Amino acid sequence: MQILLTNDDGIYAPGIAALKHQIQNLGQVTVVAPAIEQSGVGHSITFSQPLRIREVHLNNELIGYGVSGSPADCVKLAVYEIMKKEPDVVISGLNMGANVGIHILYSGTVAAAVEAAIMGFPSIAVSFEITEQYADVNDASKVAKKVIECIIKHKLPKGSLLNVNIPSRPANQIKGIKITRQFAHDFKETFDKRTDPSGRAYYWLMGTDKSIHREDGTDITAVNEGYISVTPLRYDLTDQDLYKKIEGWDWDI
Amino acid sequence: MQILLTNDDGIYAPGIAALKHQIQNLGQVTVVAPAIEQSGVGHSITFSQPLRIREVHLNNELIGYGVSGSPADCVKLAVYEIMKKEPDVVISGLNMGANVGIHILYSGTVAAAVEAAIMGFPSIAVSFEITEQYADVNDASKVAKKVIECIIKHKLPKGSLLNVNIPSRPANQIKGIKITRQFAHDFKETFDKRTDPSGRAYYWLMGTDKSIHREDGTDITAVNEGYISVTPLRYDLTDQDLYKKIEGWDWDI
To answer: What is the domain count for chain B?
Structure first.
């Protein structure tokens, strides 16, 4: 089995190394990941400047390919330029931080999996809710491997995409798996306005405490309650309900 | 009426100036746009570095606010830090180039409108299919204004989002409006591999000829045939069909 492994934290991130270690016996793993961290880049692609691919070695061993672009760029380059055979599955992760709710839209991790799904490959984004209380990426990667094995066993259809989030607790304290929907509400993230030494204003985006958001059946609530969340996602953004509504409008301009 | 106007081509782009000129009598227009071009950034947000807001003047007149970030950053900053009243509608455009099919996911123009919808505002992304044959942004902005007026008249519900694309032809040759769905297939964009003067490889993403893609009822076909395309979009990415399918899997890990 050909596995393409990517992420948005960059090729040197502990998460991708830990996950590669866990899944390397599932098939032939090719790592193609951003050369530098790309968190929060969403589904950005690079077309105004060219891309570079660099072989990355560790202890004289090729560990993967670093790309001077976004996670979505990595998937395109991996398939069209780097891998000799097409991937049977594309895995993006292990992301250092949960990707739930609206943050799915901002996530480079998820965007890489979306790009793979668009290209027709089954794909899985895997993120780990890192907290001050618990941040063991090796343990989380073992959990991730079990979920990935389960998905592969069931043969995820071509072009399908699952967003997996692992809660911030040891494997033996995880309550199980829940199939969820995206929490689709604003996190109301605002800004911290500060003044620099020259007296000019600057603004830091402030994250929200995601644990305050609750809605049964959603990704965020499953993770908050200690379950692994598995959310099937799609990349056809058409809103069918709104479609029916505006179809009846008088559009004669 | 309070109108927030943004884009991804940057605050100095001809498209946003032309559209502002057309819609300025519809209400109080506040322009908050990226200080530099942000095409293809998708729904990226900036949290690893702070943001700056700069007042932009032209002929001693304040024309808007330039932000050192992405289109989505602009919408957040506009609402939380710049505008005294909340917008009644958020408009993103006029984008210099169509945003149809899978390109919706890469588009900063659409991402700004998505961000506004998440925040609860009615929002409209407006793009103009610029070609070598026809590229009159002033004419296209007149068309855009009529579509925007029509949408405002019908009171787009809170949190709703329409993606409007104007075909590359003079207003009097446009055939009308079609309500469409997103063309949700891969454009199969590949890379042009080149060698730099130092002998090292680099890769340019190559755009596809979008006119070869046809599927009745989709955004791309409507624009190709000379219609204005209006596609309702959503930001809840949950795939309900896949949800039902994987719910039945044996998830006991």
So the answer is: 1
